[in-house]
Amino acid sequence: MKQKLTIALATIVVIALVFAYFRIGPRSWDVQITGVTGDGRAIQYRIETLRSGTTDSLVFRNEDAGFWPPYFKFDSADVQSDASRVARHCPEEAVKVHGYSMRIPLLNMFPNVRFIDAPERCLTASSPASSEEHAVPMSPDRR
Fold it and tell me: For 23, what's the count of Cα atoms within 13 Å in the CB-facing half-sphere?
């Protein structure tokens, strides 16, 4: 009887863990990045977004995961920089944000971003050479 109870309890635990993994495990969202906040030290990085094609907002946290959960994420500052460039250069562009966890307002819990898939033109910084091409040339007598 004790062995059957142990097997039943172990089965329930395994089912619960599998359900939790699929519910809060790795996911991706199609969103438009509208802003970024935080300095990564005193104020946690946050990425503010709108779900693509809707007015539903979704806020992500962006922090290093370290070794647990096993995502080995140590580049939150780089991800924050990418999000900032997308928000500045392509605010209307839908991007795919990959992360894990879920939003639970009661627990003040946000999904954590692992990386952002965005078009290269949204991530590339504008170069000084490209701004010189569009500059109005000065007349020879004003130089």
Answer: 8
Q: What is the pLDDT of residues 7-27, one digit of tens each?
A: 999 999 998 887 777 677 889
> Cα separation of 72 and 64, whole Å?
8
In our burial notation (b when 16+ CB lie closer than 10 A, e otherwise), range 80-109 reads bebbebbbebbeeebbebbbbbeeeeeeee
**Phi, psi angle pair for 109, to nearest 5°:** -110, 135
Domain 27-120 has CATH 2.40.50: yes
Tokens of 39: 């300095």
Express each pLDDT in 71-108 by its tens digit: 888 999 999 999 999 999 999 999 999 999 888 899 89
What token pair was written down for 76? 């939150």
In the chain, where the domains are located: 27-120
The distance of Cα 36 from the centroid of its chain, to the nearest Å, equals 10
